[in-house]
């Protein structure tokens, strides 16, 4: 068990800071923001991934922990006060280190698009790697987001999700102490 590893040292201030970074990243797709400085979560979680989860997940949130993140399960249960959701199709949040099939996650409904899932995906690096061109709401001009760790066919895998708008999965990318967001509203091409 790894629950002895601490969460936020100052839960209120650090959760507020992480939430602000996440909101800013969602409002400005592709912008890289800092989160999780000083956190030492269990493997395989990076500090930014842990900060996002500590900020968004509580006892009411339905979090699916992908098998690749299972070693951090006890820590997440203890610090977030949640019981993991075994079925990713019914989860409000999914944490993974490999891109799952987005069609297997909840896209919400026409009546309640806000009930869709948010995928918190840990990647190898943000700011380096493959260039992805993002276009859509929140962007006056297309933005370039460089990511190491997304599959080569990421744009093709994202397109059906984007086409579901106003339904669809939102994506938060995390690496080290950095995060970036890709809302469902954003179209992606390799760039």
β-sheet strand percentage: 15-25%
Following the backbone from N to C, one meets helices and strands in this order, namely: HEHEHEEEEHEEE
Total separate domains: 1
Q: By CATH's scheme, which homologous superfamily applies?
A: Bacterial phosphonate metabolism protein PhnH
- What structural category arises from helix and sheet content? alpha/beta
SS field, number of helical segments: 4
CATH topology group: Rossmann fold
User: Sheet bearing the most strands, described?
Assistant: 6 strands, mixed
- What is the average per-residue confidence, as pLDDT, rounded to a whole number? 94
Gap from first CA to last CA: 43 Å
**Rg value:** 15 Å
CATH architecture: 3-Layer(aba) Sandwich
Q: What topology, given as strand order, has the largest sheet?
A: 1-8-7-4-3-2
**CATH hierarchy, class:** Alpha Beta
Fraction of residues in helices?
Answer: 10-25%
- Extract low-pLDDT stretches: none
Question: Top keywords for this entry?
Answer:
191 residues, six-stranded mixed sheet, three-stranded antiparallel sheet, 9 strands, 24% helix
Structural description of this entry:
This protein has 191 residues and is an alpha/beta fold. The chain has a single domain (11-179), classed as Bacterial phosphonate metabolism protein PhnH (Rossmann fold, 3-Layer(aba) Sandwich). 24% of the residues lie in helices and 24% in strands. The protein has four helices and nine strands. The chain has helices at 11-27, 47-56, 73-80, 154-163; strands at 33-34, 63-65, 93-96, 118-122, 125-135, 143-148, 170-175, 178-182, 187-190. The protein has a six-stranded mixed beta sheet with strand order 1-8-7-4-3-2. Strands 6-5-9 form a three-stranded antiparallel beta sheet, with helices on one face. The longest helix is centred in the N-terminal third of the chain and has 17 residues, at 11-27. The N and C termini lie far apart (43 Å). 40% of the residues are buried.
């Amino acid at each position: 068990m790894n629950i002895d590893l601490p969460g936020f040292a100052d839960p209120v201030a650090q959760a507020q800071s992480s939430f602000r970074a996440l909101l800013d990243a969602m409002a400005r797709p592709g912008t890289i923001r800092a989160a999780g400085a000083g956190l030492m979560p269990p493997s395989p979680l990076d500090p930014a991934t842990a900060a996002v989860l500590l900020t968004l997940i509580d006892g009411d949130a339905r979090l699916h922990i992908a098998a690749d993140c299972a070693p951090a399960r006890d820590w997440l249960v203890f610090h977030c006060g949640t019981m993991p959701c075994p079925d990713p199709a019914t989860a409000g949040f999914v944490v993974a280190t490999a891109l799952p099939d987005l069609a297997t996650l909840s896209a919400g409904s026409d009546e309640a698009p806000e009930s869709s899932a948010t995928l918190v995906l840990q990647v190898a690096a943000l700011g380096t790697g493959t260039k992805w061109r993002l276009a859509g709401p929140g962007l006056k001009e297309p933005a370039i987001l460089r990511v190491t760790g997304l599959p080569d066919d990421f744009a093709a895998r994202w397109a059906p999700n984007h086409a579901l708008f106003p339904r669809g999965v939102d994506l938060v990318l995390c690496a080290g102490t950095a995060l970036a967001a890709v809302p469902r509203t954003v179209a992606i091409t390799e760039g």
